[in-house]
Write a structure and sequence with these properties.
The protein is mainly α. It has seven helices and no strands.
């Protein structure tokens, strides 16, 4: 059976946002437990389930799509369509910043210590 290209795109976006956040599947699953306990998610995810969604081996119920968007801090619209909205542009920037090293983050915000000119 041929997979729907729209479903494949959702899986690609899921993997993309997780990797930008610098999370393994296991770490993303752990984050989902923390968010569930904080009542930010309806239910948590297991790493194997997250991986199957990324590979599009498993269908995602609508409620889980909302939870995935909340887990990764993106809009449902972006997750489903890839459409750029003001919210997704801000989310993308935050995710990219989260993926930067401390040195790169300091450079972005101009907080690199100046080298002393004294010898």
């Amino acid at each position: 059976m041929t997979k729907n290209p729209n479903v494949i795109s959702v899986g690609v976006r899921l993997r993309h946002v997780r990797e930008i956040m610098g999370l393994s599947l296991t770490e993303a699953a752990g984050l989902s437990v923390t968010m569930r306990d904080a009542r930010q998610l309806e239910r948590s995810f297991e790493a194997v389930v997250l991986g199957s969604y990324e590979r599009t081996d498993r269908e995602m119920p609508l409620g889980r799509i909302y939870d995935l968007a909340a887990l990764y801090g993106v809009s449902v619209e972006w997750l489903m369509t890839g459409a750029e909205t003001p919210e997704t542009l801000v989310s993308d920037l935050v995710l990219q910043l989260l993926g930067l090293s401390d040195v790169a983050m300091a450079m972005v915000f101009g907080m690199v210590p100046r080298m002393s000119t004294q010898i």
